[in-house]
Amino acid sequence: MIRSKQEYISILRKKLRRYRHSEEIVAEIEVHVHEMLLEFTEGHKMSEADAMKKVIEKLGSPKEIAAMYHEELGVTESKTQWTFITVNLLFFIVGISLTAIYHLVSYSFATHIWSILTSIPFIIIVLYMFFWGLLGYEIGKEFAYKGKRLLKKTLYISLIPNLILMALVIFRIIPLGWFDPLLTGPFIILCIICTALVFPISYAGYRWGVMRSV
């Protein structure tokens, strides 16, 4: 019977030693074990041995966690990564295409869609932030503790279109006037804040996904 955090982590480290990034996985799990132990020992006044029983019930034994990494997953890291990167890229392609059609071609349907979208910019931002949270959640749920590196890599690649669009607007390759209905002071500030929150929101989704996976 496992009676302490040190024993739990030691067993887990041995069972995961053949895995790439095993130390990163173990460190992430150790954080969860520590948080749960504090909850049970300080919040519920349990001994460490009794608290470890509760931790294992909720988190799983080292053997169970290691078995999870032995299983063949139907979803590969590459597939998950490029699915989200592609979806994010499609957002930009559709958005830029619609903007170009609205300003360069007299097309009533595009005008109607443009009017709707420019009237709900804050709703669009909320939905876009939800997309980043969903990205983190799916990676956490599918890959658990070994998904942290994948999350960071996916975020960095996905943000490239954002930076390219920003550069195109700043250097006037795309006319600034095309975005006049949106480029108000409050909206620009909100966009900056939301960009800064992309990783925290994605990481929060990732942590939630990890907890759901174990």
From TrEMBL:
Q: Which residues form a coiled coil?
A: none
Q: At the top level of its lineage, which domain of life is listed?
A: Bacteria
- UniProt keyword list: Membrane, Transmembrane, Transmembrane helix
Pfam families in the record = HAAS
InterPro entries given in the database record: MFS_trans_sf (IPR036259)
Parts of the chain that traverse the membrane: 82-105, 111-135, 155-174, 186-206
Keyword Transmembrane assigned to the entry: answer is yes
User: What's the protein here called?
Assistant: Putative integral inner membrane protein
Upper classification of the organism:
Bacteria, Bacillati, Bacillota, Bacilli, Bacillales
